[in-house]
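Sample intake sheet
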Amino acid sequence: MSWTINLLTLFPEMFPGVLGHSLAGKALERGDWAYNAVNIRDFTEDVHKSVDDTPYGGGAGMVMRADIIEKALLSIDNPGHKIYLSPRGTPLTQAKVKEMVEMPALTLLCGRYEGVDQRVLDAYGFEEVSIGDYVLSGGEPAALILMDACIRLLPGVMGNDNTADNETFGANTGGLLEYPHYTRPATWTAEDGEAHPVPEILQSGHHEKIQQWREKQSVDLTRRRRPDLLKK
């Protein structure tokens, strides 16, 4: 049985997008995962297919209506865990991604305009999830990011089941940022003439010292860029 994700959106043609390519695309063709993009506009009743209205209390922009979102949601046979992509939600973390992959089905609500009527979120127990402290024009790009993070953890998608979880925030880094990577040539000379050699330790063949170097790099990078992760 494939891992299934439902999408409530005004733009179903945006899916699967980039996830229809590369390893995720091959996994989609194999049936390792499936998606169901539901067009919210299909559940409107007026000639203009309006899904939004002015906010109570005044203010700029328009708000997506609870009754129309509800009809779209109820059209899904197995919605599973329901998520609303929102900048005010709890941060998306690798730990949360692992939880989502264990769920047999997810439904992602992609908002537009100023957002959605709070009542439908409360009535149907939507969890609000944020992919970062910034605002997008809609929830679809955020949904694709969340989907990508989940799909790559599905068994067999990355080829080696250990590969997907051994990167940044993964098992080999203890939840820290990942160490730098290098490959051939051993010395790369940039266009400006400056030579950039691979660190000698990585060419030493001494696996224990290489592991120690990588661990130190992870800690140093995390301390400089994400000190909040060290506190955790």
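Comment: Residues 207-225 form the longest helix (19 residues). Residues 3 and 33 are 5 Å apart (CA to CA).
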